[in-house]
User: Fold these one by one.
Assistant:
Number 1:
Amino acid sequence: MTHSSSALSRAGLTNPHVHEFVAEWSHVLTPDHIEVIGSDDDARLLSEALADGEIIEAGHDRYLAHSHPKDTARSEERTVVATHDPADKGVYNNWRHAEEVRPQQVTRMSGAMTGRTMYVVPYLMAPPGSPLRRWAVGVELTDNRVVVLQMLRMARVGAQYLNDLEDPAFFVRAVHATGDLDALGQGTEEDRRLFATIADRREILHFGSAYGGNALLGKIAHGLRQGSYDGWSSGRFMAEQFMLIGIRDKETGRVYHVCGGMPSASGKTNLAMMLPPAALGERYEVDFYGDDIVWLRVDEKDGRVYGMNPEYGTFGVAKDTNWESNPNAMHAVAEGTGTLFVNVAHHEHTHELWWEGKTPDYPEDVEGWRDWRDAPIGERPAEHQRSGEDADLWSQKNSRFTARLSVVPNIAEDYERAEGVPIDAIIFGGRCRDREPLIRAITDLAEGVYDGLTLGAEATFAAEGTEGRLRYDPMSMRPFMSFPEGTYARHWLTVLGEAEHQPVFAHVNWFQRDPEDGHFLWPGYGENLRALLWLIDLKEGRAQGRQTPVGIVPLPEEINLEGFEGSREDLDRLLEIDLERWSQEIALREEHLSQFEGLPEEIWQAHRRVSAAVAVAREGEETSLV
């Protein structure tokens, strides 16, 4: 018996193929020690990490870690999807040939764990008993204890998930090696980092980081890139960067489930954790299932689309999380929750945490506060202590918290339901200052998929001449695509086309602004529930809305405005369609879609229908002005 097999056997991990996998990579990585991790190890690992200074206490049962200053975010340009078939190359998946990438990664990783412990983390990215369990099991090897602590919060961890597989060889093999972060040439031509998903081998090899999705391989690399590839290659499901909520009508007892994708900074986590407006709280509750990944399938028995969150926790952005924007998140990261923060500011005496946007302004007294690099803020020149400039931020822009789902106050009672939950609506939404109304519903499958493929948020760099133009992010999956976009669109049409009971699609926008003074026309946050309630009413036949060239928008009287304190005038503007802006958008969409080889004809037909409808409506509008 090898040294690695002995360690695995002592931990009760009996799957012989896991033994082979660990032995192979032990030979490459040459760790000094091997340790198998289970869910019961969390308290011990926290104690060890505290003793070794890898984390610090941030109050009772809450913790803070600091990353290397060159290791603070995902690196899309160093992230690749590799297969053995060049036909898998898409526009966004940064495809490489597996025969090139795998030997490079083996070379990079050789000896990378010398003097370190290899942690073996067997995990399940699905509720136990899930119909998609076959594709949800994996083993991550990592040399970083903080990464292990985060995985214990983000996945179901234990040897039992690998010991009873129908096919013992069928699991994701994931290897993470941190590397020497001082000597990797990050951001230079000599950058040695590479984060590779070798999708047709179901192998994930990440080298050169200990941060977030670069290191938590069960999350993005498995849950999205490998998951979406598996869903396509099996023909069984889709893996999407979606949030998932339930809207519970306490009067009728009915729960409606809504999932959807939104690009970065478009309010996805706040929507998933929202509290209903006070006036609607007695009747409605919002149940949280997840804010980042949903796997979707069609049930053969009842013909409905089902969704489930494969994650066991939430990996949230700290910036701008506060008691107004997301009170449920604030409860989830409070003391006593076991939450682990990375790269926020802390007070060395009170153990309080702070990040930009937590409160309207910085703490008045800077003494005792240390920034995300663990440097004392009081020792800075006075003009750099509370300036808010990028170089002076107390917390890193991408600072994060990792919290278990179970500590989110509005977690759904059935969040571990094996089969997932039936999906009533699929929504998309990006941050747009104009053109996009509050909500527009789409009842045609091809037009719904078309809308998702043309999802985007406004580019923010006016100096580049892109102000007001969308950065397209199909289904919010642009950084996570694992196979070509045309094939991806066909997969959507095929999977959802098998559903006897189709969900309704919608596009939402909480971010329209007044062009004169720049104020937001919609209050946002919990008020967003009102738009989703209208969508449910539309699906159930209780509302009809108004047909426009780009979908159905609500009639103002169809929206539940009980207790609404926003402007009715602004609401009327939010339900208008700017045909001139939409004419411009249609041309940009055609340019965007033309990048994708093999785009299904159904998508082009949908594009032509919307384009023609916009043109006819605009012609009628111009005629009426004559």
Note: The radius of gyration is 25 Å.
Number 2:
Amino acid sequence: MFPVAWRLDAGIGRSRALPFWFSCLGVLSVRFLTTGLGVLLLLTVGLGCGAFGPGQGMGADGLVDADPYGDGGAPTDDDDGDDALLLHCEAQPPSLTIHGDEGGSAQLLVSRIAADGALEPASNVQWFVLDDFGGTVDSSGVYTPPPTHGGRVEIEATVDGLQGICALEVYLEMEAIDSSAAAVQPEVLDLSPEVDDGCGPDLMYPLGGSVLARDLGEPVLQWTVPVELNVFVVTIENAFTSLKTLTMDESWAPSPSQWASLTHDAGGEELTFSVAGGLVDPATFDLVSGLCRDSSSTSSGVYQFGTAGTVYYWSPATSGLWSVGVGAAGAQAWLDNESTGHCVGCHTVNLSNSDRMAMVYGGGNGWAVAVDVATPEAPVLEPEIRPGNFTALNSDGTRLIRSYEGELYLDDLVTDTIIGTLPVTGHATHVDWAPDGSRVVYASCSYANDRYDWQVWGCEIRSVDVLPDDQFGPETVIVPADPDWNFYYPTVSPDGNWVAFNRHAGGDSERTAYANPEAQLMLVSLWGGEPILLSNASLPGQTNSWPRWGPTEGDFAWLTFSSKRPYGTTSHNVSQIWLSAINFNDAVQGVDASSSPMWLPSQDSGTGNHRPVWVPRY
């Protein structure tokens, strides 16, 4: 028997210098194995935890050395029994609650674990707060967390080349009083509301089951009240951070700093929203009745939109395109009838080339136009030259496909020439070019009304292979025609593996593809298969049209679309831009991959906004 124990733990890879093996000390005879999971211990009795670095118990074969003394395992007179093998680090207290600006701190205690198992306090400790959590450690080992967020923080202690990890859970509790409730007694924030579904406010936005993009701006919480209530306590919380706000309004939004605290990575990826209401005397502002709340709360995920950029959408207010940047204060007119002399719409970009955008001037059967996003006032392809309805650009912006009278025309934007037409079937329209350039998808339709491409029905979704030298290969039917459904508006995902599209039920009398009231969002593999209804994103009877992809971030790709679904209490029956997080892992399983959508912040809530197109960087 000899004193040794190392085991792979969560600390691997967190040290500033690699390799290090986070481990625990025990007494046993053991063989260590290196596998795809790291160094594994077959049997262990842990007494303390720390980390090994190069030369600290490592054999020449890359295995942890079970005989660090080189003498068969037993210490000899030449061995320094005081030499530490490991560090043990702990925080006292192990969890800390911070109330607003009061602050708080925890003592970090580090011990050296000698070969004989003895513990002795360590000195000359160097400290490193991991994962950009923030906070400071003073010379006596007192850690003060940042006042901006909660979470589980890990702090690396280093002594003479040994490492140990201190873990501390930090909870942040914030309170705020909105200016509308300045005269209300702040003690109302401390009251426990009675659960009463007939009294409690009904939260209308955010939507339960949604995923909110933390970097797209703060959501405006909106609610209705079933009885007379005029003061409200709004609570937003994650696993470690909470915010209670007192307001007399029936909507409220956190400040940018409050939102940053609530959506910090360390707090996890879920938020819970709730609203309690009460009644105060409007003359004295004394509380007349206690608080009540609904029995349910609203939970949503929180994730990163991920890439700076701009969403461009069509607005009927100016018959043109408006832009709203990520985190911008508001939307602004970009290209419209006033600046161009034409109605500007049906715009598109290729996600692999954010510098160039194609669009149509003059409405249906109008003129295909291409511009550089940085200089839209100087078109690359001028209007009144080539007719078109829907357009698509290749990944380098040198080729344009435009639909017109059931054909797909290919243009060379470098030489300003028409190359020819694509080999297509039926009335071809609603074209999109995959970001990797490998395929083109389109709607192949049996019928079209007066050749306007939003009046099409009997459509199926097809793809065409893109070959060298401006050639196109055989077609593939991705979603075959169905007499009970119309399939249209296909768009290829950023990774090139999926196609989002619209469908609606009905025959001849409901043939319009333009913001059809019963439109649903769908997803299918680019290579075909069973289509998946994105039911979480598709509120029945609310148009759910014009799907276009945003960026991919982590587990999600963002799908933008327009819908007339209510935006809280702000707008009803008005097309607005919405975003749903699409989880491709769910799509592979053949189940609904969508989340309930979030409203695109800063768009104009009073105009019927259509066809959102995301452009990175601009």
Note: Residues 1-82 have pLDDT under 50 and may be disordered.
Number 3:
Amino acid sequence: MAYPGSPFFNGDSLKYLQVITAHALIMIFFVVVPIFFGGFANYFLPYHVGSKDVAYPRLNNLGFWIQPCGFLLIAKMGSMRLEYWTTELKTSFYSGLAKVDHFLQQHVLDELFLDVKKTMINNDYSRIWKIIDDRMKEEDKSLYTWSEYRALQDKIIMQLELPKTSKLNINIFDENFYSYKLIFWKDIYNSTDTFWSLTKNALKLKRQKRFLVKCISANQTVAGWTFITPFSSNTEYTGFGIQDMLILGVYYAGISTTISIVNLLITRRTLSMPGLRNRRILIPFVTITILLMLRALSVITPVLGSAMLMLLTDRHWKTSFFDFSYGGDPIFFQHLFWFFGHPEVYVLIIPAFGIINSVLPTTSSRRVASKHHLIWAIYIMNYMGFLVWGHHMYLVGLDHRSRSLYSTITIMISLPATIKMVNWTYTLVNGMIKNNLILYGVVSFIFLFLVAGFTGMWLSHVSLNISMHDTLYVVAHFHLMLSGAVVMAIFVGFYFYYYSLMQTKYSKLFSFAHIIYYTIGQWTTFIPMFWVAFSGLPRRLHDFPLIYLGWQSMSTVGHFISMIGVFCFYTTLLESSFERKLTPITFNLVPKFYVNSAFLYLKNINKKLNKKKKTNLLTKKTK
């Protein structure tokens, strides 16, 4: 994306959609949520409620190992090669194929066939392509598109049974393989779009593994990570393959999440220490927000699961939940998905609030200002998040009354967010600030959350949302919130609890470099996207006009700066693990004599210091 012309994807827009779909689902379902569940919730919640472990450890283990199954499905989907033609290509080339077939019936068995056969007998393959090309020039090229013209050449060559080892412009067998398959429009029933033809061809060919892998990717995912209907619910737009892998991957993530929800909520309910059950103020902020996240997920996860089940039945069992022609409603799926999708944003950001509220007193050397108001603001923000999913759907045909309602409630959410911002600022202003790594992370989080919240308020207004809808403005907004604020809070919490998690200290050099580089990279990556969006560049595009080159290159540079920060983070982990291993080794390698002598030397110094203190106290008393 740094340069126009799609240098990375080579003009393949469907491949670009495939990659960003995998990116979105992996980062939401398999990165941020597992970090809060598997990292913070499983470690801190039993400890903070007074339990030794979660209620069902084996069930917890089952939920952990289900998670990689969904990850592998979606990751495989993002890296698949698109080998076969799609339904979209079938419909767009259908009219031209009839003309091509008519031409072939007239001319394949005429003197062209004889001329080519003669040259093959004489082993003069260099003239074959010239003969075919000369014959094609006699036809009216205006009747054919470029793809049809190339497809016509391919079919003539295939019907002549030319050997593949010949020096006949081998590119026609590779680059135009799509067009070659499109020519056989009468044999559509033998295409790889159906399961039965797939198994038939797999048994016929001995290269079963390679053939099956290619056929799974027969149709790309044009529905995106939001599973937009009717693309995702109809096999005419997304055939058997990638879209089904996405649905199964989301199901695996939902099953793992549900297992963790049940386990952790039962742990809180049944294994809490006496007196803690009805006194929530004694529970740390992190645990309060995690419990709130669990309750929200217990409401929205079944909704997503039911929507995915309806998609599967529409695709494979001929139901019509989202098929308008049979009485269904495509917009109904968007209501179901965004009823899950928008509270999911608060599921991700509310534990981040809890981490910041917990670590802020250590950097300012005072209690958090107005702790009760902070707790109530988090609760109100979470419950109001269930009422505003419609602001993702302003342009799907909602009536004016509904859009005004969703817009008003979305704007109201800024009130509890403002309460938190004021309390954090007041805590820092009236405290004795410690200049350490945690302070830098907290300040970075506050500014990232502030800008992401302001840009979200812009999108909450209907008129402004219409102008910014499906532009890079939306991409910059939610990336500043998720990859900026939420991920920064995760890093802050990780460094704050680093010693209790790793039993060793982290490197100050690499940890400071990590926070600074990652913060600079986030701003450099996403701020230019606001200006690009104001100029009208849509999202989900792999190519752009040359006029946007400056801002797009700046975003690419910012991404690499963020990657330097992530590299410093992993270097911190590696360095601390080496330090933990080397410390006992170096201690054991030191000769015992030197260890004992150093211990005795320090002991004598300590005795002398104690004697000096005692004499100083005696002199003060005598005076």
Note: The chain is about 70% helix and 0% strand.
